[in-house]
Protein backbone atom coordinates (compact mmCIF):
# COMPACT_ATOMS: atom_id res chain seq x y z
CA UNK A 1 0.00 0.00 0.00
CA UNK A 2 1.24 3.48 -0.81
CA UNK A 3 -0.28 6.63 0.64
CA UNK A 4 -3.76 7.78 1.58
CA UNK A 5 -6.69 9.36 -0.23
CA UNK A 6 -9.10 11.27 2.03
CA UNK A 7 -12.70 11.89 0.97
CA UNK A 8 -15.25 14.11 2.70
CA UNK A 9 -18.60 12.41 3.38
CA UNK A 10 -21.68 14.49 4.25
CA UNK A 11 -24.60 12.61 2.71
CA UNK A 12 -25.08 14.88 -0.31
CA UNK A 13 -25.25 13.48 -3.83
CA UNK A 14 -22.07 15.38 -4.63
CA UNK A 15 -20.20 13.65 -1.82
CA UNK A 16 -21.45 10.27 -3.05
CA UNK A 17 -19.91 11.09 -6.44
CA UNK A 18 -16.73 12.08 -4.58
CA UNK A 19 -16.65 8.70 -2.78
CA UNK A 20 -16.96 6.86 -6.11
CA UNK A 21 -14.20 8.94 -7.68
CA UNK A 22 -11.95 8.66 -4.63
CA UNK A 23 -12.40 4.88 -4.45
CA UNK A 24 -11.28 4.53 -8.06
CA UNK A 25 -8.32 6.83 -7.51
CA UNK A 26 -7.22 5.15 -4.27
CA UNK A 27 -7.35 1.77 -6.02
CA UNK A 28 -5.26 3.06 -8.92
CA UNK A 29 -2.64 4.31 -6.44
CA UNK A 30 -2.75 1.24 -4.22
CA UNK A 31 -3.58 3.67 -1.42
CA UNK A 32 -5.84 3.58 1.64
CA UNK A 33 -9.21 5.34 1.28
CA UNK A 34 -10.11 7.29 4.42
CA UNK A 35 -13.73 8.43 4.66
CA UNK A 36 -14.19 11.46 6.91
CA UNK A 37 -17.35 12.99 8.37
CA UNK A 38 -17.59 16.16 10.44
CA UNK A 39 -20.70 16.62 12.54
CA UNK A 40 -20.68 20.44 12.40
CA UNK A 41 -21.29 20.35 8.66
CA UNK A 42 -23.54 23.35 7.97
CA UNK A 43 -21.90 26.48 6.60
CA UNK A 44 -24.94 28.52 7.68
CA UNK A 45 -26.39 27.06 10.88
CA UNK A 46 -30.15 26.85 11.02
CA UNK A 47 -32.06 27.34 14.26
CA UNK A 48 -34.35 24.37 14.89
CA UNK A 49 -36.88 23.77 17.63
CA UNK A 50 -35.38 20.46 18.71
CA UNK A 51 -31.69 19.70 18.30
CA UNK A 52 -30.97 15.94 17.94
CA UNK A 53 -29.00 14.46 20.83
CA UNK A 54 -25.27 14.08 20.34
CA UNK A 55 -25.47 10.29 20.41
CA UNK A 56 -28.17 10.36 17.72
CA UNK A 57 -25.98 12.54 15.51
CA UNK A 58 -23.02 10.24 16.11
CA UNK A 59 -25.10 7.20 15.19
CA UNK A 60 -26.26 8.88 11.98
CA UNK A 61 -22.67 9.72 11.10
CA UNK A 62 -21.53 6.15 11.69
CA UNK A 63 -24.41 4.81 9.59
CA UNK A 64 -23.46 7.19 6.78
CA UNK A 65 -19.79 6.27 6.95
CA UNK A 66 -20.70 2.59 7.00
CA UNK A 67 -22.91 2.92 3.93
CA UNK A 68 -20.26 4.88 2.01
CA UNK A 69 -17.57 2.39 3.00
CA UNK A 70 -19.67 -0.46 1.64
CA UNK A 71 -20.28 1.52 -1.54
CA UNK A 72 -16.54 2.07 -2.01
CA UNK A 73 -15.71 -1.59 -1.35
CA UNK A 74 -18.42 -2.82 -3.69
CA UNK A 75 -16.86 -0.62 -6.36
CA UNK A 76 -13.27 -1.68 -5.60
CA UNK A 77 -13.26 -4.98 -3.70
CA UNK A 78 -9.54 -4.92 -2.82
CA UNK A 79 -9.66 -1.42 -1.39
CA UNK A 80 -8.34 -0.79 2.12
CA UNK A 81 -10.59 1.68 3.96
CA UNK A 82 -10.80 3.50 7.26
CA UNK A 83 -13.29 6.01 8.69
CA UNK A 84 -13.20 9.03 10.97
CA UNK A 85 -16.04 11.03 12.52
CA UNK A 86 -15.16 14.25 14.33
CA UNK A 87 -17.37 16.82 16.03
CA UNK A 88 -15.89 19.84 14.32
CA UNK A 89 -16.29 22.04 11.25
CA UNK A 90 -15.60 20.23 7.94
CA UNK A 91 -12.98 22.73 6.78
CA UNK A 92 -10.98 22.27 9.98
CA UNK A 93 -11.28 18.49 9.81
CA UNK A 94 -10.20 18.16 6.19
CA UNK A 95 -7.34 20.63 6.44
CA UNK A 96 -6.03 18.63 9.38
CA UNK A 97 -6.45 15.40 7.40
CA UNK A 98 -4.60 16.88 4.42
CA UNK A 99 -1.37 16.98 6.43
CA UNK A 100 -1.33 13.16 6.40
CA UNK A 101 -2.79 12.54 2.94
CA UNK A 102 -1.61 12.44 -0.65
CA UNK A 103 -4.94 13.68 -1.94
CA UNK A 104 -8.20 15.13 -0.59
CA UNK A 105 -11.41 14.62 -2.57
CA UNK A 106 -14.59 16.69 -2.13
CA UNK A 107 -17.97 16.89 -3.77
CA UNK A 108 -18.63 20.15 -5.59
CA UNK A 109 -21.77 21.98 -6.67
CA UNK A 110 -19.78 24.14 -9.04
CA UNK A 111 -21.18 27.66 -9.25
CA UNK A 112 -23.68 27.61 -6.40
CA UNK A 113 -23.94 27.91 -2.65
CA UNK A 114 -22.92 24.64 -1.04
CA UNK A 115 -23.01 23.02 2.36
CA UNK A 116 -21.03 20.35 4.11
CA UNK A 117 -18.00 19.20 2.16
CA UNK A 118 -19.23 20.60 -1.14
CA UNK A 119 -17.69 23.66 -2.74
CA UNK A 120 -19.16 26.68 -1.39
CA UNK A 121 -16.93 28.32 1.13
CA UNK A 122 -15.77 25.03 2.70
CA UNK A 123 -14.56 23.53 -0.57
CA UNK A 124 -12.83 26.74 -1.56
CA UNK A 125 -11.10 27.05 1.81
CA UNK A 126 -9.83 23.46 1.70
CA UNK A 127 -8.60 23.84 -1.89
CA UNK A 128 -6.90 27.14 -0.99
CA UNK A 129 -5.12 25.92 2.14
CA UNK A 130 -4.65 22.15 1.87
CA UNK A 131 -1.16 20.72 2.31
CA UNK A 132 -1.80 18.29 -0.55
CA UNK A 133 -3.68 18.40 -3.87
CA UNK A 134 -7.48 18.67 -3.68
CA UNK A 135 -9.87 17.26 -6.29
CA UNK A 136 -13.38 18.69 -6.57
CA UNK A 137 -15.89 16.28 -8.11
CA UNK A 138 -19.28 17.16 -9.60
CA UNK A 139 -22.36 15.04 -8.98
CA UNK A 140 -22.73 14.47 -12.73
CA UNK A 141 -19.04 13.73 -13.35
CA UNK A 142 -18.93 11.41 -16.39
CA UNK A 143 -16.46 8.58 -16.83
CA UNK A 144 -14.43 10.31 -19.51
CA UNK A 145 -11.39 8.88 -21.29
CA UNK A 146 -10.31 12.29 -22.49
CA UNK A 147 -7.06 14.04 -21.66
CA UNK A 148 -5.87 15.44 -18.38
CA UNK A 149 -5.82 19.18 -19.12
CA UNK A 150 -3.24 21.21 -17.22
CA UNK A 151 -2.95 24.99 -17.34
CA UNK A 152 0.66 26.14 -17.28
CA UNK A 153 2.27 29.53 -16.72
CA UNK A 154 5.55 29.28 -18.65
CA UNK A 155 7.09 32.05 -16.54
CA UNK A 156 6.58 29.91 -13.43
CA UNK A 157 5.72 26.40 -14.64
CA UNK A 158 5.15 24.75 -11.26
CA UNK A 159 6.58 21.27 -11.70
CA UNK A 160 4.14 19.96 -9.08
CA UNK A 161 1.25 20.49 -11.54
CA UNK A 162 2.97 18.57 -14.31
CA UNK A 163 4.03 15.80 -11.94
CA UNK A 164 0.45 15.38 -10.72
CA UNK A 165 -1.00 15.49 -14.24
CA UNK A 166 1.48 13.06 -15.81
CA UNK A 167 1.33 10.57 -12.92
CA UNK A 168 -2.49 10.58 -13.03
CA UNK A 169 -2.50 10.19 -16.82
CA UNK A 170 -0.05 7.27 -16.63
CA UNK A 171 -2.18 5.44 -14.05
CA UNK A 172 -5.38 5.93 -16.02
CA UNK A 173 -3.93 5.50 -19.55
CA UNK A 174 -5.09 8.88 -20.85
CA UNK A 175 -3.16 11.67 -22.61
CA UNK A 176 -2.06 15.01 -21.18
CA UNK A 177 -2.93 18.33 -22.81
CA UNK A 178 -0.78 21.22 -21.57
CA UNK A 179 -2.31 24.64 -22.22
CA UNK A 180 -0.55 28.00 -22.15
CA UNK A 181 -2.29 31.26 -23.03
CA UNK A 182 -1.24 34.83 -23.32
CA UNK A 183 -3.31 38.01 -23.24
CA UNK A 184 -3.45 40.13 -26.37
CA UNK A 185 -2.37 43.68 -25.53
CA UNK A 186 -2.34 46.83 -27.65
CA UNK A 187 1.20 46.07 -28.89
CA UNK A 188 0.21 42.57 -30.00
CA UNK A 189 -3.37 42.83 -31.21
CA UNK A 190 -3.18 39.75 -33.40
CA UNK A 191 -0.70 37.58 -31.52
CA UNK A 192 0.86 36.23 -34.71
CA UNK A 193 3.07 33.21 -35.14
CA UNK A 194 5.85 34.69 -32.97
CA UNK A 195 3.87 34.38 -29.74
CA UNK A 196 2.70 30.87 -30.58
CA UNK A 197 6.18 29.70 -31.52
CA UNK A 198 7.67 31.11 -28.32
CA UNK A 199 4.91 29.54 -26.25
CA UNK A 200 5.29 26.14 -27.91
CA UNK A 201 9.06 26.22 -27.40
CA UNK A 202 8.64 27.08 -23.70
CA UNK A 203 6.00 24.37 -23.22
CA UNK A 204 8.18 21.79 -24.95
CA UNK A 205 11.04 22.57 -22.61
CA UNK A 206 8.76 22.56 -19.54
CA UNK A 207 7.46 19.04 -20.27
CA UNK A 208 10.71 17.53 -21.62
CA UNK A 209 11.71 15.74 -18.39
CA UNK A 210 8.15 14.50 -17.83
CA UNK A 211 8.02 13.01 -21.32
CA UNK A 212 11.19 11.14 -20.45
CA UNK A 213 9.79 9.93 -17.12
CA UNK A 214 6.39 8.96 -18.57
CA UNK A 215 7.10 7.78 -22.14
CA UNK A 216 3.76 5.95 -22.28
CA UNK A 217 1.78 9.21 -21.89
CA UNK A 218 0.78 10.97 -25.07
CA UNK A 219 1.26 14.74 -24.86
CA UNK A 220 -0.46 17.59 -26.66
CA UNK A 221 0.85 21.13 -26.32
CA UNK A 222 -1.46 24.10 -26.86
CA UNK A 223 -0.23 27.70 -26.97
CA UNK A 224 -2.89 30.22 -27.85
CA UNK A 225 -3.88 33.82 -27.31
CA UNK A 226 -6.78 34.59 -25.00
CA UNK A 227 -7.82 34.28 -21.39
CA UNK A 228 -6.58 31.20 -19.57
CA UNK A 229 -9.78 30.55 -17.59
CA UNK A 230 -11.96 30.52 -20.68
CA UNK A 231 -9.69 28.12 -22.54
CA UNK A 232 -9.40 25.75 -19.57
CA UNK A 233 -13.15 25.73 -18.90
CA UNK A 234 -13.81 24.98 -22.55
CA UNK A 235 -11.11 22.27 -22.58
CA UNK A 236 -12.72 20.64 -19.51
CA UNK A 237 -15.59 19.37 -21.67
CA UNK A 238 -14.73 15.78 -22.53
CA UNK A 239 -11.61 15.77 -20.38
CA UNK A 240 -10.81 13.37 -17.55
CA UNK A 241 -9.69 16.22 -15.28
CA UNK A 242 -8.47 19.80 -15.30
CA UNK A 243 -5.36 20.57 -13.22
CA UNK A 244 -4.75 24.10 -11.94
CA UNK A 245 -2.30 25.50 -9.39
CA UNK A 246 -2.26 27.41 -6.14
CA UNK A 247 0.78 29.10 -4.62
CA UNK A 248 2.15 27.70 -1.37
CA UNK A 249 3.63 31.02 -0.25
CA UNK A 250 2.57 31.88 3.31
CA UNK A 251 1.32 35.33 2.41
CA UNK A 252 -0.95 33.78 -0.26
CA UNK A 253 -2.24 30.93 1.90
CA UNK A 254 -6.01 30.85 1.83
CA UNK A 255 -6.17 32.57 -1.56
CA UNK A 256 -6.40 31.26 -5.11
CA UNK A 257 -5.70 33.09 -8.32
CA UNK A 258 -8.52 34.29 -10.57
CA UNK A 259 -7.96 31.50 -13.11
CA UNK A 260 -8.09 28.72 -10.52
CA UNK A 261 -11.15 30.29 -8.87
CA UNK A 262 -12.99 30.47 -12.20
CA UNK A 263 -12.11 26.91 -13.20
CA UNK A 264 -13.26 25.29 -9.94
CA UNK A 265 -16.62 27.03 -10.24
CA UNK A 266 -17.29 26.55 -13.95
CA UNK A 267 -15.43 23.49 -15.29
CA UNK A 268 -17.77 20.62 -16.12
CA UNK A 269 -15.66 17.75 -14.71
CA UNK A 270 -13.26 17.06 -11.85
CA UNK A 271 -10.81 19.84 -11.04
CA UNK A 272 -7.52 19.24 -9.23
CA UNK A 273 -6.02 22.19 -7.33
CA UNK A 274 -2.32 21.49 -6.80
CA UNK A 275 -0.22 23.58 -4.37
CA UNK A 276 3.14 24.57 -5.82
CA UNK A 277 6.14 26.78 -5.06
UniProtKB/TrEMBL annotation:
Gene3D superfamilies referenced in this protein's UniProt entry, alphabetically: HUPs (3.40.50.620)
Pfam families documented for this protein: Usp
Domain of life according to the entry: Bacteria
UspA domain sequence ranges: 1-138, 147-275
Matches recorded under SUPFAM superfamilies: Adenine nucleotide alpha hydrolases-like (SSF52402)
Family, per entry: Belongs to the universal stress protein A family.
Entry protein name: Universal stress protein
Protein's organism: Streptomyces actuosus
Lineage: Bacteria, Bacillati, Actinomycetota, Actinomycetes, Kitasatosporales
Amino acid sequence: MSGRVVVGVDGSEESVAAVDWAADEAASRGAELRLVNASLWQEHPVVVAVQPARDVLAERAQDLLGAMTERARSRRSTLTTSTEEIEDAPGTVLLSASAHADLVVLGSHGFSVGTGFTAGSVGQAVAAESDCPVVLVRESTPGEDGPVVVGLDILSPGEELLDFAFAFAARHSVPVRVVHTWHLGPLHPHGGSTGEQAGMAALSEAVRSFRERFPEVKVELVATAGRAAGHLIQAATGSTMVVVGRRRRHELRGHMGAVTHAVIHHAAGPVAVVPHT
